[in-house]
Amino acid sequence: MNHKVEQTEDYIPPTNTQTAEATVLLKVKEGNEYKLALNMQQFTPEDITIKLNGNELTIEASNGGESFKQKHVVPDNIDLDAMSSSFSSDGVLVIKAPKK
């Protein structure tokens, strides 16, 4: 399953002076959903690809000068078909899915 990230209406592209490491801001496996938030300020939604292979979630991004790749294992009790993603105006990528 491949999933393209869509930008929110209030998205503002980063300027050339903004740089940041793509870091995990939040990873929640407990509660009612699986939620992963990543700081992706140096990328635009078009730069980001999310792939799901079984329970392995891969986030890749490339903008010519910088590239990023990170893998996460999604727990078995998560509804992968209901997984969604969003990219906020401040450059935070959020991937979430409810429990089965």
What does this structure look like?
The structure is a single chain. This protein has no helices and eight strands. With 100 residues, the chain is mainly beta. The protein has a four-stranded antiparallel sheet with strand order 1-4-5-6, with no helix packed on it. Strands 2-3-8-7 form a four-stranded antiparallel sheet, with no helix packed on it. Strand 7 (84-87) and strand 8 (92-98) form a beta hairpin. The chain starts with a strand and ends with a strand.
The gist of it:
By secondary structure, this protein is mainly β. The chain has strands spanning 2-4, 24-28, 33-39, 48-53, 56-62, 67-73, 84-87, 92-98.
Taking the sheet with the most strands, its summary is: 4 strands, antiparallel
Q: Low-confidence spans: pLDDT under 50, at least 5 residues?
A: 15-21
In which order are the strands of the major sheet placed? 1-4-5-6
Helical content band: under 10%
| Strand elements, count | 8
Mean pLDDT: 81
Coarse shape: globular
SS element count, helices: 0
Topology, element by element:
Elements: E1 2-4, E2 24-28, E3 33-39, E4 48-53, E5 56-62, E6 67-73, E7 84-87, E8 92-98
Antiparallel strand pairs: 1-4, 2-3, 3-8, 4-5, 5-6, 7-8
Top keywords for this entry?
single chain, 100 residues, mainly beta, 4-stranded antiparallel β-sheet, 8 strands, 0% helix, globular
